[in-house]
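Researcher: Good morning. I'm working through a list of sequences from a screen, and I'd like to move beyond sequence-only analysis. For each chain I'm collecting a predicted structure so we can compare shapes side by side. This is the next one on the list. No need for commentary yet; just the structure.
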Amino acid sequence: MAGEARRRAELRLPERDRMPRWVPRAIGLAMLAVVGLATAAWLLDRLRDLLVVLLVSLFLSFAMEPAVNWLANKGLKRGLGTACVFLASALAAGAFGAAIASVLAEQITKLIEDAPGYLADIEQWADEQFGFELSTDNVAAQFTEGGTAASLLGDVAGNLVSVGSAAVNVGLQLFTVALFTFYLVAEGPRLRRLVCSALSPERQAVVLRGWELAIDKTGGYIYSRTLLAIAAFLVHWAAFAIIGVPSPLPLAMWVGVLSQFVPVVGTYLAGLLPLLIALLDNPISAIWVVIVVLAYQQLENYMLSPRVTAHTMNIHPAVAFGSVLVGAALLGSVGALLAVPAAATIQAFVSTYIKRHELIESEMFESQSAEPDEAVVVPELAEGADEAGEPAEQDESPAG
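Model: Good morning. Structure tokens for this chain:
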């Protein structure tokens, strides 16, 4: 028996030549992880459109829920209140779209009709100023009957099939977004109960806190943007009417909506349309339009916007700009629109879990324009210190 045991021991491999037992398990787990990541990437690619629809619906539900909650607190049933908010939003969007469409159709028709006269004026101006004979007959012929520009509407009518299919696709996506949004708003409390019922009480508090912050910040974003859009609409409506720009009411609506709800480039896109229409009507009016748009932008940046957003959504402009860039890189235009309220929600949620400390006394905390009494001083350090910064002598005499 001893010889058999010795022979088996001699045939046994050295310990350093053996494969550790955890290596096959690690290889198997790594292969499973790779397969899982590849499957997840494939699913995300296939379901990208649906996920974007769900994300937009969630954002819209956060924006609408404060209004629905207010109606529900007034005694209206939640489903009926959701329908009322949806109807009001649809009517506002429809009125805005119809007004802008009528302005564009009117101005395009006017441009085609007046283009030969514009070209003749350009030709005369070039001849008078520089003595240069500029022939615009070929270009003007495109705007007369039978020309390329004049037959543009006919070409568009010939492509109604492709335009109609694109419109149907957009309509289906809008219907899907509206359907998901309606159920997310109408069944909001029930959905929260369903989600929290699967979590521990501690995690339920975290989830409800995040949900509440998302609704508060998104609703605050929509509320503040709406107030600023109304202010921009009223100011530009009065200014365009005084200047004499054609269709001042729809153009003021365009400026108010785009300047507030389109991040980063909204202000420039908002001012471009009234500028072009004023330029076609009267070049002097176009100059006044530029002055009005720039002046109001400064008024809004330094007076209106800080006061409004201070009560609704406090987020640094640099953070907002960076979040828009990140959102646009991830989800395109949809991500850019959702970036600011998402950043505000994340900022508010994270700030609740960050421990704040009192600041030490330092000149680096003071701005160059700050007054001496605005310096940050820690009470514990300030108390018991004389003007030279040395600790004050304490009275060691016995009490009493």
